Fold this sequence. Notes:
single chain; 499 residues; seven-stranded mixed beta sheet; alpha+beta
Amino acid sequence: MQKYDILIIGSGLGGLICASILSKNGYNVCVLEKNHQIGGSIQNFSRDGVVFDTGAHYVGGLDEGQNLYQYFKYLGLNDKLNVKKLDINAFDIISFGDDKKDYPFAMGYENFKNQLEQYFPEEREALNNYIDKFIEISNVFPLYKLKLPNSSFMESEYFKISTNSFLNKLTKNIRLRNVLAGTNLLYAGETDKTPLYIHSLINNSYIESAYRFVGGSSQMAELLSDTIKQNGGTIIKNSEVQEFLFKDKTITAVKLANGEEVYADNFISNIHPARTFEMMPKDKLRKVYRNRICELENTISVFTLYITLKENSFNYLNQNIYYYKQNNVWTASTYDKAEWPESYMLLTQASDVNNKYANGITVMAYMKYNELKKWENTTVEKRGSDYKEFKQKKADELLNLIEEKFPDIRKHIKSVYTSTPLTYRDYIATKDGSLYGILRDCNEPIKSIILPKTNVPNLYLTGQNVNLHGVLGVTIGAVLTCAEFIGMDNLITKIKSVQ
């Protein structure tokens, strides 16, 4: 009987990084993936020859000497990744329907302030204070700076301050507040809930440096997979875990959908904690712990357009566009169905073939899971004609909003494909198709903190619900998980020592 040191459930970025680190450090690891393709939110798919990302649309902190650069150097990724640096002076553009100006987010602290000061000449002090707060917060979170963590950072005031309240105190200029919070879709921000540290850590990494994957983010999955296999690890696809098998209080194996049992000494789940706990008897977890995790609110989902373009028709945009109908970016949980969509994020795919013209566009707009309740018990490709009609209607409505900024967009389109919260639920295994898993709430900061170690002695968690979402957040979360086996001092020393 084959038995592994560590069995990892789910081949999303967190699971693959854990497998890479642990196999590198001598553990016999196995990764189980329910789908035929590994990668979770970093996988790609192709339509009409155009490669689209499912989740990791751009990444920050990849310049030499920056945090993700060093983590990726340890993982052996840096020299092999095919990435393109976004526009240094405008990697993100924030736009509003009631304003003809495009507000740029620039790379580098001084450049960021200087670019926005052109639009807000009276707000230099506010912009200085904004960036100073970013630096202050990033220094509080140890692993963000590759320093050893201590328990005191979890007591930080930045867990308890909302992003919106901070911005309201920062400046009286409502437009500037909305510009600074304009990349809201990166963290599904909610007005009175999203903690300041979420906004700061995510935006700070992009302001340091912002890159787009050329040819898709699945290259990360492929490179990590190669490393895992070279280190003697195993990855098994088309293997859906349905149940944890126990002996007394510890897990001995998992049972797959085909009835097969896979044994290990320790288990790491890269899927949503609530989904993880549903696969075990209720008496194996403390009731208070289970209830706390399973009752946590999740972030909203999205409706996405994947547009293929006519050849040499639409210019490649080396930045991401965030567009809002009104001067209000806080619409994640409050949008009116009758007014949908109220905002979107738009980006063009990066390709090796043509740097002048784009071959594809991805557009994302918030969508609540309850809009899909009618079809929640259906499966992929079997949802019926009314589901297709729903998607077509929503695609047309979103294209209508896109036309406000790109009036001739429809004449460039070759074909349009769509995904809904149900797509995310079924392919990525997030609860209710949630974009970023568990919603962090500054009003109950400790409640939404998910630690790698669970109440089950040999079960650990990783992924976007541990630490933070996004490529950097998930990477740090995987380091936290692996430190349970290797030791934090030892692991951080190894990561920092790679030259």
